[in-house]
Amino acid sequence: MSVKIENLFHIYNPGSPFETKALDDINLEIKAGEFVGLIGHTGSGKSTLTQHLNGLLKPSKGKIYINGEDITSKDIKLRDIRKKVGLVFQYPEHQLFEETVYKDIAFGPINLGLSEDEIAARIREAMDLVKLPFEELKDRSPFELSGGQKRRVAIAGVLAMKPEVLILDEPTAGLDPRGRDEILEQIKSLHQKVQNTVILVSHSMEDIARLVDRIIVMHKGKIALTGTSREVFKEVETLESIGLGIPQITYLMKMLKENNIQLREDILTIEEAKEEIMKWLRGRKNA
Ligand code: ADP
Ligand code: MG
Q1: What is the CATH classification number for the domain harbouring 1?
Q2: Which ligand 1 atom lies nearest to the CA of residue 48?
Q3: What residues contact residue 233 under an 8 Å CB cut-off, 6+ apart?
Q4: Do 163 and 198 meet the contact criterion of CB atoms below 8 Å apart?
Q5: In this structure, are 233 and 275 located in the same domain?
Q6: CA-CA distance, 24 to 169, in Å (whole number)?
Q7: How far does the centroid of ligand 2 lie from the alpha carbon of residue 274, in Å?
Q8: Which of 123, 126, 133, 237 could form a disulfide with 159 if both were Cys (CB 3.0 to 4.6 A apart)?
Q9: Is any ligand 1 atom within 6 A of the Cβ of residue 142?
Q10: Which ligand is nearest to the CA of 51?
Q11: Do 202 and 263 reside in the same domain of the chain?
Q12: Taking the model in full, what pTM does it have?
């Protein structure tokens, strides 16, 4: 499913002393099956934007189309939007509330009006996707689980709705590096399997650069840059001026180049850097 955002503005507390313009004329198109990274400093408007995409927030002005359908129209039901668009909130584990893991993940599917068998199948499948052992955990209280497991339960609750558009708002915030890599891998492999549209929100370039098809950089409620990771990383000055760095390995490659070691500049991963440096070393040996 595609996502199209036209001239979207959002102002919190309009007309009060606390008025904040959180979104300032956002225009954006995401194709069906695209995997994009939405990145920006804290306060740049990422969460405000994502909450518009599942109807939780209404635009102050502007339109949003999901697969061509205007979800900002008055006649549209929230339930119909949420069938298509699944949003995993920032720190979603704060919203776990049922007495068992099973019931918590079942909440969304029950609201979709699915049969009991279908719900059971979806819970099992969603738990498998995020690598939670079904038998071991289904009857446990979500509150007794580790932080990482709670996060997975919350993500499974959204996956069990099988949304065609999946939005994850900083899904790895506060996790250790291993938990972080695992969750990102699981999101990526789900995308590869079902070709859903994925919007992954992060404030870390390192996290998303190697995963996504395209990066969208937000700054002060506007879109500052968009392009592939390699395209965006060439804009080092712009990125630094808005408080975002590029991955350390990309910096290293730039430094080498500045010292007249001619290497590609658009390196994203340590493996690519290694290959490029080895190539350069071999070239020197033969010279
Ligand atoms: P991000 O997710 O990129 O950190 P947010 O969308 O949370 O950014 O915030 C964008 C701006 O809107 C910030 O200035 C923030 O303080 C403000 N803001 C966010 N949520 C609210 C709210 N519920 N009420 C008032 N202002 C808000
Ligand atoms: Mg946020």
Answers
A1: 3.40.50.300
A2: 6
A3: 205, 209, 239, 246, 247, 250, 266, 268
A4: no
A5: no
A6: 20
A7: 34
A8: 126
A9: no
A10: 1
A11: no
A12: 0.92
